[in-house]
Amino acid sequence: MVPINLIIKADNLVKRYNNLTAVDNISFYVKEGEMFGFLGPNGAGKTTTMKMIQCVSPKTSGKLEVFGMDVSTHQREIKKYMGVVPQENNLDPDFTVYENLRNYSRYFDISMEEAEKRIEELLNFVQLIDKKNSTTEYLSGGMKRRLVLARALLNNPRLIVLDEPTVGLDPQARHLIWEKLRALKKKGVTIVLTTHYLDEAEKLCDRLVVMDYGKIIVEGEPSQIIKDHIGTGVVEVDNYPELVECLQKSDSIYEVMGDIIVIYTNDPVHITNQLSMECSLDKMTTRKATLEDVFLKLTGRKLRD
Ligand SMILES: Nc1ncnc2c1ncn2[C@@H]1O[C@H](COP(=O)(O)OP(=O)(O)OP(=O)(O)O)[C@@H](O)[C@H]1O
Ligand SMILES: [Mg+2]
Q1: Measured torsion, CA atoms of residues 285, 290, 292, 298, in degrees rounded to the nearest 10
Q2: Using a 6 Å cutoff on CB, does residue 57 contact ligand 1?
Q3: What percentage of the chain carries pLDDT values higher than 90?
Q4: Which range marks the domain in which residue 268 is found?
Q5: CATH number of the domain residue 256 falls in
């Protein structure tokens, strides 16, 4: 059953660029106050989907509503309550940190006085107050990303849509962004994000989808997705022919990944005992199953063109 308090609702959404179907008939919903992730290999259609939600790229067909309004007819109203972090930092390099924010605030119905106040607060929030008068061209990658996040918050949005918010950031900057996103979520802000960092998605997202070739191939809560597709544990062993033969005789679910064999299991102790007794194997690594295991299992190992 689809819940009522939906911030985004997509039904059979399609985006075509000439002959290419970048988003291929996807349906999903995002509930108020949740953190929702879009994962998928390069070219899967994540950014294309974000751009349709952000009302900057028109859909080809299907339905897409944000705050209960149609993205094709209510762009202005939707944008008023939405914050956007695009995949590429589109800051004005000639202006200072302060000026970038000040110029952006003019798109919204915010008085000069109010804008000044918010800019000050937001620069403190993303820890950039010391850089207020620096030209953005000379900021580091992590600082630019934090500035784009501050910019997305200028209009006090109910929804923020972030396309790879932490790409290329060092662990400190990533953790800071996570902390800020959690603080916003606590305030009731709905958050939609894309990421290639699967640990990030696992930690942050209440629900997520994995896209591939324009389609949604899995949807759900991270822990449930892992349980459904992998189990709770993974045993990794070196790949050699006798072991494959031995595994074929057992009822293990495994995958050969180059020189490593990955065994998916809910009972790693049983599997390791079995392997050491039946296959005379003593070198094994046991670890918790992760979203990355699911991602690779479902989308394969082949690089996307
Ligand atoms: N403006 C455009 N014109 C033509 N094709 C496009 C355009 N924008 C995106 N595409 C194509 O649409 C497909 C989906 O691209 P999209 O940017 O949505 O992928 P993505 O999932 O965001 O990938 P990444 O992880 O690399 O950012 C790709 O094949 C891409 O080449
Ligand atoms: Mg993208």
Answers
A1: 100
A2: no
A3: 83
A4: 231-288
A5: 3.30.70
**Residue ID of nearest Cα to ligand 1 atom 9:** 48
The closest residue, in CA terms, to atom 19 on ligand 1 is: 43
Task: Give yes or no: residues 150 and 244 share one domain.
Answer: no
Both 72 and 209 in one domain: the answer is yes
For the CA of 46, the nearest atom of ligand 1? 21
Pocket of ligand 1 contains residue 105 by CB under 6 Å: no
Which residues neighbour 171 within 8 Å (Cβ) at sequence distance 6 or greater? Answer: none
Cα-to-centroid distance, 116 and ligand 2 (Å): 32
pLDDT band of 4, cuts 50, 70, 90: low
Handedness of CA 218, 222, 224, 225 (dihedral sign): positive
Tell me: do 193 and 63 sit in the same domain: yes
Cβ(205)–Cβ(189) under 8 Å?
A: no
Is 52 touching ligand 1 by the criterion CB < 6 Å? no
- pTM score, whole prediction: 0.93
Coil vs helix vs strand at 154: coil
pLDDT-based confidence at residue 279 (cuts at 50, 70, 90): confident
| Residue 294 within any structural domain of the chain | no
Does the pLDDT value for residue 61 go beyond 70? Answer: yes
